[in-house]
Amino acid sequence: MFENLKIAGRAIRTVFTADPITRVRRFYEIQSPDVEFAARRTHYMNVGYWSEGVTDLDTAAEALADKLADAAGFKPDDTVLDVGFGYADQDFKWLRERQVAKVYGLNITPHHVEAAQRRAQEEGLADRTDFRLGSATELPFEDNTFDRVVALESAFHFYPRSAFFAEALRVLRPGGVLATADIIPVSGDVVRAAIQSGPLSFVKFSIPKENWHDRDTYRQELVEAGFANPEVHSIKDRTWEGWRAYMAGRTEDPEFRAVVKPAVRKSMAAHWKNQDLMKREMAQLDYVIAVGHKR
Predict the structure, then answer these.
(1) Is the CB of residue 199 less than 8 Å from the CB of residue 278?
(2) Are 153 and 24 in contact (CB under 8 A)?
(3) Overall pTM surpassing 0.90 (yes/no)
(4) Three-state secondary-structure class, residue 136
(5) 114-140 pLDDT, tens per residue?
């Protein structure tokens, strides 16, 4: 997922900037699609939901998309806003399998928007999609527009996430639902800057301090935004460890080895070498599904 973030020290420095939009955009621009999606069948960029027996990231990532859709309560006639959609794999899945009426997607990274628009044209779904560039904290939509607003492992980037919650409430219709799959610490005592492992360096460099809080604070921010009886449930036991095990063993996968240069594999293996440190740091990270309803 994030293996390219710290392969080169120069790359990691490109994330540093005071401007939150530029920071997130740079974060995803330094990813290498040729490596990121080598020997894979999807372009999901999440840690996945690892049920018993799941052994590959594509299956786990699709399961996480289903988990979020279930939490949001998707129905066939829904108009959905997906904020921070990446390459939009989940949106095409929801259009096919959930038969939602239309998906609007908002993303801060131009090449993600372009890729999603291109795929919509190729799959004949341009009339049921609207992928555009924009900020999660200034949604370019009228009040009371959507039945569902979702953010699949993206809201931790939003600066701040509480502003996104307020915007989501505004654009939802009465009775609408906000649902997020999100990364937070297990408690407020976890020191974000102390995380040292390469694969988790995105936690240090791309999550703003304003979004670094536990489940109780997450729920309180939803309440303060105006959502009724929000729920924030941890699914960490089905996320981090499955992702770690898959990514740590990826450089030995024959299909991956066949399409990635030896020098890149060697760099990745070094990047994922300190598994003991990573396990200790993963224990400090939560992974939640949060749901809020608009009255």
Answers:
(1) yes
(2) no
(3) yes
(4) coil
(5) 999 999 999 999 999 999 999 999 999
Q: CA nearest 5: which of 258, 268, 284, 293?
A: 268
DSSP for 17-54 reads: -S-HHHHHHHHHHTS-HHHHTTT-S----S-----TT-
Any alpha helices (H) in 50-103, and if so which ranges? 57-72, 89-93
Report d(CA 36, CA 32) in Å as an integer: 6
Residue 283 and residue 256: Cα distance in Å, rounded? Answer: 28
Residue 171 identity (one-letter amino acid): V
Q: And the tokens for 10? A: 């120069």
Q: Are 45 and 153 in contact (CB under 8 A)?
A: yes
Q: What is the DSSP string of 224-283?
A: HHT-EEEEEEE-GGGTHHHHHHHHHTGGG-HHHHHHS-HHHHHHHHHHT--HHHHHHHHT
Dihedral in degrees, nearest 10, Cα atoms 164, 169, 173, 174: 160
From CA 50, how far away is CA 59, in angstroms rounded? 8
Do residues 5 and 30 make contact, with C-beta atoms less than 8 angstroms apart?
yes
Give the residue carrying structure tokens 């694969």: 199
Give pLDDT, residue 2.
38
| Pairwise CA distance, residues 32 & 68, whole Å | 26
CA–CA separation, 83 and 135 (whole Å): 9
User: What is the arrangement of strands in the sheet containing 79-83, beginning at the earlier edge strand?
Assistant: 129-133, 102-107, 79-83, 146-152, 172-185, 285-293, 228-234
